[in-house]
Amino acid sequence: MSNTATRRRRPEVETLISERRIKRRIEELAGLLNRDYAGREVVLVPLLNGAIVFVADLIRHLDFPVFLDCIGVSSYGSRTVPEGLVFTKELRIGIRKREVIVIDDILDTGRTLKAVHRRLQALKPASLRTCTLLDKPSRRQVPFEADYIGFTIPDHFVVGYGLDFDERYRNLRYLGRLNTETSTGSKA
Ligand code: IMP
Ligand code: MG
What we know:
The chain is globular and about 60 Å long. The chain is an alpha/beta fold. Helix 4 links the parallel strand 6 (99-107) and strand 7. Helix content is 23%, strand content 29%. Strands 2, 3, 4, 5, 6, 7 and 8 form a seven-stranded mixed sheet that branches. Helix 2 (19-36) crosses helix 3 (52-59). It has a single domain, classed as Rossmann fold, CATH 3.40.50. It has helices at residues 3-8, 19-36, 52-59, 111-121, and strands at 13-17, 42-48, 66-68, 71-75, 85-89, 99-107, 127-135, 148-152, 158-159, 175-178. It contains four helices and ten strands. The longest helix has 18 residues, at 19-36. The protein binds inosinic acid (IMP) and magnesium ion (MG). Inosinic acid is lined by residues 50, 104-112, 157-159, 163.
């Protein structure tokens, strides 16, 4: 590619939410959780892989006793196929009669969190709430609302801070909007 073409290209990722704003919002979210769960013991259940960066930062601001156990879930086939989800890692900690908070990176169509919620509810926890870093309500296909939300955003494809596009960009310190005109690969 010529230098001119390189200069004309828009960057692949444009900052949507800075590292500083993420940090501040996580402290606020932790404040809400510390208020709501003060003195209680909670099992945090992050969804692999997208939620790991978020939970790694969030957990260090929590003052109540926490257990941590991830669930692995990924969609197969078309995203439009209902229930096209496969669980790649099950819970190892028993959650019956325990307080549980499911943690995810982004609530999009709602299919993933709805399926996880149904699966965990069947294990009869004392309480079951959801905390998501991002929410894209305009994309919802099944009714589902999170109890704690970091940022509500418009319908952009977002990468960074744990979120990927074809497994790339998870290591960005900020949340970026993927410029689909210049990126390569297919939407995961
Ligand atoms: P849902 O089942 O459609 O709500 O999708 C949830 C999952 O889709 C998330 O946990 C992400 O892995 C992925 N996802 C949805 N939107 C985005 C995005 O904008 N960037 C990266 N991953 C996304
Ligand atoms: Mg994910």
